[in-house]
Queue: 4 jobs
Job 1
Amino acid sequence: MYDTIAAISTGPVTGAIGIVRLSGTAAVAAADRLFRADNGRALADAPARSMIGGALCDLSGRVLDRILAVVFRAPKSYTGENIVEFHCHGALPVLQEALRSLYDLGVRPARPGEFTKRAFLHGRMDLAQAEAVIDLITAQTADAARNAAGQIGGAISREIEAAYTLAADLCAQFRAEVDFPEEDVPPLSLPEAAVSLRAAAARLTALADTYARGRILREGVRCAIIGRPNVGKSSLLNALLGFDRAIVTDRPGTTRDTLEESVRLGGLWLRVSDTAGLRETRDETERLGVARARLAAQSAQLLFLVLDGSAPITDEDRAVMDQARGLPAIVVINKSDLPARIETDVLEAAFLHVCRVCAVNGDGLAQLDSLVRRLFESGAPPCDGGLLTNARHAEAVARAAAALVSAADALAGGITPDVVLTELEAGLDALGEVTGRCISEDIMHRVFERFCVGK
Ligand SMILES: Nc1nc2c(ncn2[C@@H]2O[C@H](COP(=O)(O)OP(=O)(O)OP(=O)(O)O)[C@@H](O)[C@H]2O)c(=O)[nH]1
Ligand SMILES: [Mg+2]
């Protein structure tokens, strides 16, 4: 039995609509103290999942807002409990006043993620699906949202369950043979079992490998703009953002500190750092900036190496090119509005991805967009929910795959059933960590504390 909780599910912002949500045994009774339906009927008698017009009042009966109320009855609700939603006009003071009245009635403020935690605890979704809810809420790109939506629909859970069922069935068979050797348990075909285990392990390994791309979906791509001073790095950042974020001057050495901004490019979420121009310098502040620029370049997953297309390649350019060699880099030849004097053939020989842009008028940015898209999308599976986006899941799935391979090896090597059982059980535990079948209080707490209040 859980107490009744409430929160502003649309968040502490003013919008056209604001939703106060209550969940728990007393949700409908508490809501009925504040809501006067236009049809005169109590919410306790209202049909489920219908919008009912009426007035939202405080406990003294003063009207706060004209709203729509919806009742969802247990167990057919998001949390699996009785839920009432008040769809109000989005004025925060009204929403807060409604909450205060509910608290006076003994309803408790919901903690971050508590609605979704209850959904998990009541079996409305497994842990992988619950975690996808937070991915969906915080998605930065359409692909990230699509992947999360697929996971809420059970894409990951189905993969995990298939392996879980196979391992659990084999476990049951082996247990029967170990525990009741005198019973007539039909013998297991060991080679067949080993083959199915290896096939399941291969699928799990492929799933774990999707994390490389899934991580990019969730965390974005760390990208550094590097180049010698004055080639137009800050101008490129501003052009990508669509507004003047970084200071631009015609004096080399303008940018000192690194500056990070998020941009959407090539369907991806890029966390772009504009950096100080790379050169040898005696100026102490600039030297610190150059050191930071090098650090940003080293930790980046993608480099935009900017060159000035209106000048021949300099020694400073060459030093930057040396630093970028072997890293995922796109050479951006800037200032395409000026007469070209750069040796393009040298660049094309040294780097796979080269494009010409003008950071001042935006020419060539579309080509940069498609280069980024191509660089990160080649061979990637579609974002339909099949990508793991969570390090904890990826680690557990890889561990499960390793355990199933060990079990298959033990079977093939004619090792005693108890060893096979130990491996199979380790695999089951690892899979259970993803779906939440076997999960410690501590991990569960950590998962849900990442949520916002009201979800
Ligand atoms: N004609 C032309 N000028 C540009 C273009 N992009 C940048 N510039 C000019 O080049 C100069 C340097 O631009 P910045 O963006 O400050 O260059 P930066 O690489 O950030 O320079 P540092 O911060 O000093 O390393 C400025 O005068 C810009 O207006 C371009 O595409 N065409
Ligand atoms: Mg700059």
Job 2
Amino acid sequence: MVNVAQLRKLKNLPPQEPDFLRRQVDSYYIDRVAPWGGGHIMIGRAPGEDAVRLVSNDYLCMARHPEVISAQCEALEKGDSALLMAAVFLHGDNPQARFERQMAQWMHAESAVLSQSGWAANTGLIQSIAGPKVPCYIDMFAHASLWEGIRSAQASAHPFRHNAPEHLESLLRRHGPGVVIVDSVYSTSGSIAPLSDIVSVAERHGAVIVVDEAHSLGTHGPEGRGLVVELGLTSRVHFRTASLAKAFAGRAGIVTCSERIAEFLKYTANPAIFSSGLLPHELAGLEATLQVISRSEDRRRHLHRNADYLRAGLSDLGYNLELSEAQILGLEAGPELATMALRDALEARGVFGSVFCAPATPKNRSLIRFTVNSELSPAELDRVISVCAEIREEVDLASWPSTRRRRHPPLAAVANA
Ligand SMILES: Cc1ncc(COP(=O)(O)O)c(C=O)c1O
């Protein structure tokens, strides 16, 4: 007679889940996934060959750029021994230090510190600069990695209303100097932060400011240097961060800061100490990408032209894109079941966006994000617009909370009035 433990071993089954773990996982399947009536909301159908994909953050189509690929291949073939270790062990001049200097110079900053991802850059920065109980004033739509940094610093989060400098000011008055944290371009709606006003408020109250430029570095500003450079705020913003997995199409993150703080970050940010750094071919690819990006005015122009065209077309159809000012367009169906209906209607017609739901958005503000890139053709954009026109009744656009929130009626409605 075999007992249960022997049977598990015989059948190569994993160990039994203790109660606390079973409850935790049950709540995912029962409370989260079951109301979706099958699979996870993120999983729709697979795109076919001719699908229009509006999902990648490779805004300037850098991933396949021949100069980037050949720089990566050359580094791999050269076989420079990859130092598989955390960045804290890097000494002297090295490829990472060289790329950091290039990025700092390009972004008009004194110094830059590279990390493994935008997530690592943000969590490591906030964890290092905000001690326990330091007030952190964060836009309520700021990226989750910035919230995670506050959590790991055990600092106090004081969220302010999205893009509302006056609300930020009232919180600063109440809680005193601390760290003000915003994104330059918000990743679900494509809204742009009123950076000049936010910086002025932060300065008036002696606060430090962190701007996450993940969605503006490479795409905005002179030669793609970002919005802080474009607005002439470099000497007033203490820290800029960015994921280099967007326009740079790599796997890395960056923080700009003063030289003094750069050293402090390199030896205090947990991802720099406890997680391995980048590989030589990744650094070579990023260096080549920087060269290409800084002379990619045409790509930037195409990107913004494509985004403007799609935004105008969808807006005329009645979709509320009033928040979007950049290459991110959020079709906010609201409740998750409405977003699933939208996902299915789009995908059935060969248009693929990304589902954003809780925890990336508030529970009742889920949406499909369309991410525009510089190489989308006019025919592809027209196809997206005509699909969105065709599905309006099927997805019940008129009943979406975002449609009812719209301040300005679509132009077509004005013309027909
Ligand atoms: C605003 C913002 N910051 C940080 C990140 C994290 O970047 P990464 O994917 O490089 O970890 C993202 C990615 O989704 C983002 O949108």
Job 3
Amino acid sequence: MTAAPAPGGRVLPTLNEDGSRNWIRPKPAEGRWWRRRQVVAYALMVLFFAIPHIRINGLPAILLNVPRREFTLFGTTFLPTDTMLLMLLLASIVIAIFLFSALFGRVWCGWACPQTVYLEFLYRPIERLFEGGRSGSLNLDRKGSHFHPRRLLKYTVYLALSLFLAHTFLAYFVGVEALAQWVRLSPREHPVPFLVMAVTTAMIFTDFTWFREQTCLIACPYGRWQSVLLDKQSLVVAYDYGRGEPRGRGKARTDASGDCIDCGACVITCPTGIDIRNGLQMECVHCTQCMDACDHIMDQVGTPRGLIRYATQDALAGKPKRLLRPRVVLYPLALALFVGAFVTALNTRAAADVTILRGAGEPFRLEADGRVANQVRVRIANRSRAEHTYAITILGAESGQIIAPENPLTIAPGELRSTSVFVLLPRDAFTAGRRDITVRVTSGGFAESFPFNLLGPADTLPTVVP
Ligand code: SF4
Ligand code: SF4
């Protein structure tokens, strides 16, 4: 049997060359950027916990009802028939992300992504509290270390936190009222919601306890897009190679040495385990930790701060700033187009959304008396904030009979209902198997007409089916 090829060096900072996990225990560097990120992170956490409880226009600020395909965003509810509006909204968000990344790099990753915010400002500080910092910490790889009392205590706190986060997260999808019910009922009475809650908690717990920074390195597509989203004029966390090199430490330093004293402080503080001095890397989440660590070292050795700083790759190469680049011009244009279309569509959408469909199954039926019966299905979504009664009128079928079991139709605000109208016409009312009619739906100030064709036999000869 051929032996497996020897490993060709580390492929991921979280993997050792033998394939085992390289546990990253970053040493926090508490400088000015860290303090700013702390303020942003805790403000975002409060916002995340508060949003499900905030109501706008009597509706939850955000409620993503996936089973009903209804999405409420800041006082506006999008119904399943609002596909175009949702598409415009999603396209606007994607273009905004593209523009934001082109200008400010991965600011989202380092400052606002829930993965970074909760890992760096909640889970890791708790870990340091129970297990000590980088040097005094328990060895994560040591056999049996998971059962150390301090670690078990940490897991217990992690589990409680994960439960809380899972409940808050699910409140965005089911609403706080339904969630309160879930919590009060016994799991036996509602096994499915209990299972959803248990799985969400388990996923959050596993992510922040075990998977951690690998989410950014392996699972998140946003990091992988960076090579196409950024250009050399985008703001990134960067090491000033020209100023820092040639690096040297202690006695090895000479008059020709750069400002980097090769202390490694920027590496041991990095939450993804990389060395920023190797250049811009996909693994860098632009968290600014290395900026703080290096600034601290620069203060100690008496050289100016900013050896690692926010800069563009062109600026570091001594090239001039270019405000007008193709992507910085095209993205805002596309964004204005999509946002404009979204706002226009939102403001001009009718108070009700009506869909006319043919009845399921056979296209028409021949009655014993020779008449042709068509089933017309009318689906109405009431978009307004009040209950409305909708009257359905069929125009162009006066010679026949209309049977409508539910007409008019009363619909609660935000609800969607369907009803059927049966149109019976003599056989000779059809020409070449078709009869054009108009379905009119009215309610107060709302009135809309829809052309529709009924189907019948291709010939128009009066024949009675036995
Ligand atoms: S912290 Fe600054 S001085 Fe120290 S190794 Fe990193 S870049 Fe060099
Ligand atoms: S290289 Fe610096 S900015 Fe990038 S992830 Fe590591 S510490 Fe954060």
Job 4
Amino acid sequence: MEAARRANMSANGHRNPPGPKGLPIMGMALSLRKDPLAGMRQMARDYGDIVRFEVMGQERILLNRPDLINQVLVIQHGKFHKSELTRRITRRMLGQGLLISEGEFWRRQRRLAQPAFHRSRTNDYAATMLEIAQVHIRDWRDGEERNIAQEMTGLTLDIAVRTLFGTTLPGEARQVGHAMTFLMRYSLRRQRLPFRIPEKWPTPANRRANRELEFIASLVYRIISERRAEGDSSQHNDLLALLMGAMDEDGSQMTPQQLHDETMTLFLAGHETTAQMLGWTWYALSQNPAVESRLHEELHGVLGGRPPEAADFPRLPYLQAVMSEVLRLYPPAYILARETVEPCEIGGYQLRVGSTVVLSQWIMHRDSRYYDDSEAFRPERWLDGLADRLPPGAYFPFGDGPRRCIGQGFALLEAAIVTATIAQKFSFRMVPGHPVVPEPLVTLRPRHGIQMTLHARA
Ligand code: HEM
């Protein structure tokens, strides 16, 4: 009894939350590696709302209750920073970009970038999004098979390049996309190796990563200096122009380095997440024909076959419910991590400085205490005010508090335009036997893609 009591105490005498012991040294690394989503849910089931576990000697605290999540993201947000793990994966690509910067630096950058994401600005991109979606499906034919996850990545990549850089990059757009995709895989692979090879060593992967980083950086710097030379960037209607024109209260603007880091951040944070959301949308619709029919009816009733515009969305509540439900069951950002920078109390436990706190949308969004029939894809649940009834912290596909996603409106507009455009022309059915397995990488991806047959709609 005494030993058990002591086992639950930390070195400084604080009481530890309950949790699995795991293996010596590795802790829970092995079981989480096999299937991190199932592993974390199992811990939540076995140990409850606040669980302590270790991975390679490092402590993690998993929070599984809305009010605890709300404490971290909103109420006590100042006591937390982004986790070292998040920074390590993305630092080389994103530098001091919004996603991982902190403190006064982050506040200034957010202040400068925020107007670019105002609804009136975002709606300006609807026409570009529509045009790209239309061009993308021009060659699609009835009866053919396509990997829809891959198609959605290509589509959102084009939208990201065009909305960030306008038409300045027609030739290089694909190359930027390939470079970004390589860098993301590279960063993640490095993270998963048991022994990290220093970035400076001239391995083929390190050398390619350097080349790709230099390629993108020189491109971004070139565009910035060309626009500076033009003197007036107002003729460019893209996010880069807005960031370049943004001015702080003291008249200061972003340096080329800051513009580079923010551009990379918007690119990375924006296109991959939205691509996954769209891929999961087609999968969920294919599995739920009644939902698909109701969506088609709504689109037909409101749009009558014409292309969608931003102004249509308030009149498409079922489309919005479908998107909310996709983000509930398949949240592209399925986990958030924070590190304590001040001691704090969460759920009756004292967390010391440097503790890593883990919050998972995957777990919370499937918790049957907050969602009836929680594993079922039922957009209807959102039509009777569920969003207002849920406690803060129960649904957070875009995070919450001051670090909430700056691109939420942009992403929802993009997903709505693309879904409404494509759903009017095609429906999709899974190729029989193709396995669809959610894989938690940087975002929640389908491990083997989503292989589907296209059916042209009359
Ligand atoms: C479905 C699509 C998207 C999802 C699910 C998503 C999710 C998230 C989440 C959960 C966060 C908070 C991260 C944290 O608290 O640690 C975040 C932050 C962020 N997102 Fe998104 N995002 C999406 C689309 C976008 C788009 C389209 C953009 C830009 C064009 C964008 C740019 C950002 C940026 C810059 C941040 C950091 C904000 C800050 O810390 O100030 N995201 N996103």
